């Protein structure tokens, strides 16, 4: 579904990603794990057309999307929950959710269906439709961000460190929702520093360090990997 082939990227003269390859199959949930500054957000920026790679290609459903504009990429069926939530804090939950569908013609037509879908996943949002997002808790805002991405009926959902700043119980709740979303057939690329919780959601994962993929394996094997245990699980 998503295939990244030999991607290298830089900010000016500072190279940040080296020859990075990864893929997410149809219906799969895949993790990309790594510490601060490893290059995870830079990868997202390349996939989404915010940053042009120096070399390498990004394919979505076998279509070369390298360098395409972000709004075109969303129309193809990829939705992003960015690290900075980029919600509109002075707008209501409803207005934020509508914004997730407004720019995608096939989603705009199915908006009532999309609202039903996100209310089933996050019932609290139905009660809070008229509340301004800026007045909600961090956990609730993150749920709005995920719900907003789902309003476009994505085939692939990319989440850039959704656990940041949330208390552990809220992370567990949010991640169990991601599993539900994946079970409904949406492919997921989960980008996380929280490897312990992240591995519970995904079937497979990659580890990125200093801009390079250093490890790729099933979640079970990653959980038992010595480097992962020491560097990420504190064991
Ligand atoms: P974090 O968890 O902190 O977001 P990350 O794995 O997402 O980390 P990136 O944000 O992709 O890492 O950053 C990778 C490297 O690129 C870091 O060394 C960072 O300082 C640098 N970098 C990120 N954004 C820019 C920018 N706009 N200009 C210059 N350098 C940048």
Describe what you observe in this structure.
The protein is of the alpha/beta class and 235 residues long. Helices cover 39% and strands 26% of the residues. The chain has helices spanning 40-47, 70-76, 93-102, 105-108, 111-121, 123-127, 138-150, 168-183, 195-201, 219-223, 226-231, and strands at residues 2-11, 14-24, 29-33, 55-60, 63-64, 78-81, 156-160, 187-192, 204-209, 212-218. Strands 6-7-8-3-9-10 form a six-stranded mixed β-sheet, with helices on both faces. It is globular. 40% of the residues are buried. Residues 11, 14, 16, 34, 36-42, 83, 161, 193 line the site of adenosine-5'-triphosphate.
Topology:
Layout: E1 2-11, E2 14-24, E3 29-33, H1 40-47, E4 55-60, E5 63-64, H2 70-76, E6 78-81, H3 93-102, H4 105-108, H5 111-121, H6 123-127, H7 138-150, E7 156-160, H8 168-183, E8 187-192, H9 195-201, E9 204-209, E10 212-218, H10 219-223, H11 226-231
Parallel strand pairs: 3-8, 3-9, 6-7, 7-8
Antiparallel strand pairs: 1-2, 1-4, 4-5, 9-10
Helix pairs in contact: 3-7, 8-9
Adenosine-5'-triphosphate is lined by residues 11, 14, 16, 34, 36-42, 83, 161, 193.
